[in-house]
Amino acid sequence: MTNTERAVVTVIGKDQVGILSKVSTGCAEAGANVIEVTQSVLDGYFCMVMIISIAEISVQLDELQKSIENRVPSMVVHVMHQNIFDSMHRI
Length: 91
Known about the structure:
Blueprint: E1 6-14, H1 19-29, E2 33-42, E3 45-53, H2 61-71, E4 76-81, H3 82-88
Antiparallel strand pairs: 1-3, 1-4, 2-3
Helix pairs in contact: 1-2
């Protein structure tokens, strides 16, 4: 799978029950498949980075971001095409 078919989802905020479930459900409903996920809780703050396949996604990435934000309204959510993410973080 190439980077043109993937996006990066980040979610940060106060830890609460069900964050991973709500975010992954939002992705699944949009037709995005979760490829990899890492998460941790640091002193009560939840931090997650998720790589998703967008090869068969049924919405635009900004719509997916809004959908996830609505599911976890107290969290900071970013959804970005992996090519853009990689370009921003290239040294």
